[in-house]
């Protein structure tokens, strides 16, 4: 009995300590926005020696107005314009393709599924040049089409595989019952399967949101106008505008950049964990 009573306290203590370790970088970034460069690099304390009560949000104001002629609000808007359609089209298109692989039989189905999975093995360094030449010939450079159009055509095999695994775990009896009630193939997908697939859809959308929101390398290749830079590149060029970088301003904008990701993961973590646990991707 005593061992059973002690075990929950030990588990909670370990979880609290682990949570503090995980959240420490975010807390350090938060308090660094209230410090000057000398204190950021010269002190190991997480708390500022002197809190700027006169203007506590000076770093946030300076960063949001922009260290260049372009404000950080422009980078935020560019990131939203690039991310939201990419996430929506990814979830829609990958759901349709996964439904086809999981519920329909067609010639060479296993072959095409293997070909689709084999593209997961291709590193980005191998396909970056062919993709650049393709997008250049289509006139898509310096736009967000290299991110949005592939999402429209389900060019993300990881999400297709994840959704296929989830659909295979849904009993086919639901499909047969809906078919007896007069549902077409599309009706079965939209009225029966998609409501049940909500956890997996949330997981796919959250993954794609994080990857696109933090995109740096591909944007650096395909987008060449500073006016169209997303947050990752906007934050980077803010450190190149002067030899004396105000790191409290950089930390403030970095914190605002990751804040949407933290909030979305916090509010959608139940669906995220459930989706991962039911798609065959758990460890």
From TrEMBL:
Organism field: Paenibacillus thalictri
GO BP term, example: transmembrane transport
Membrane-crossing residue ranges in chain numbering: 12-31, 75-99, 111-132, 144-167, 188-211, 245-268
PROSITE patterns according to UniProt: ABC_TM1
Topology in membrane: Multi-pass membrane protein
Listed name of the protein: Carbohydrate ABC transporter permease
InterPro entries per record: MetI-like, MetI-like_sf
Superkingdom, natural source: Bacteria
Pfam families, A to Z: BPD_transp_1
Alphabetized UniProt keyword annotations: Cell membrane, Membrane, Transmembrane, Transmembrane helix, Transport
């Amino acid at each position: 009995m005593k061992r059973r009573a002690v075990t929950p306290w030990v588990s909670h203590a370990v979880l609290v300590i682990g949570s503090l370790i995980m959240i420490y970088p975010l807390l350090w970034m938060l308090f660094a926005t209230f410090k000057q460069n000398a204190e950021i690099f010269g002190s190991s304390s997480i708390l500022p020696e002197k809190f700027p009560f006169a203007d506590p949000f000076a770093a946030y104001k300076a960063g949001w107005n922009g260290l260049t002629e372009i404000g950080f609000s422009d980078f935020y808007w560019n990131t939203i314009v690039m991310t939201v359609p990419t996430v929506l089209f990814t979830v829609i298109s990958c759901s349709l393709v996964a439904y086809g692989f999981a519920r329909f039989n067609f010639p060479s189905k296993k072959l095409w599924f293997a070909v689709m999975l084999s593209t997961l093995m291709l590193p980005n360094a191998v396909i970056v040049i062919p993709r650049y030449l393709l997008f250049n010939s289509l006139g898509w450079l310096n736009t967000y089409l290299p991110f949005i159009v592939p999402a429209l055509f389900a060019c993300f095999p990881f999400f297709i595989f994840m959704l296929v695994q989830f659909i295979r775990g849904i009993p086919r009896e639901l499909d047969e019952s809906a078919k007896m009630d007069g549902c077409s193939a599309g009706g079965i997908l939209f009225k029966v399967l998609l409501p049940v697939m909500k956890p997996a859809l949330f997981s796919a959308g959250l993954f794609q949101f994080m990857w696109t929101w933090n995109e740096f390398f591909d944007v650096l290749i395909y987008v060449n106008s500073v006016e169209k830079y997303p947050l990752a590149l906007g934050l980077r060029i803010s450190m190149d505008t002067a030899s004396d970088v105000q790191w409290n301003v950089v930390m403030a904008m970095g914190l605002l950049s990751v804040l949407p990701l933290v909030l979305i993961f916090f509010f959608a973590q139940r669906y995220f964990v459930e989706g991962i646990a039911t798609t065959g991707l758990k460890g």
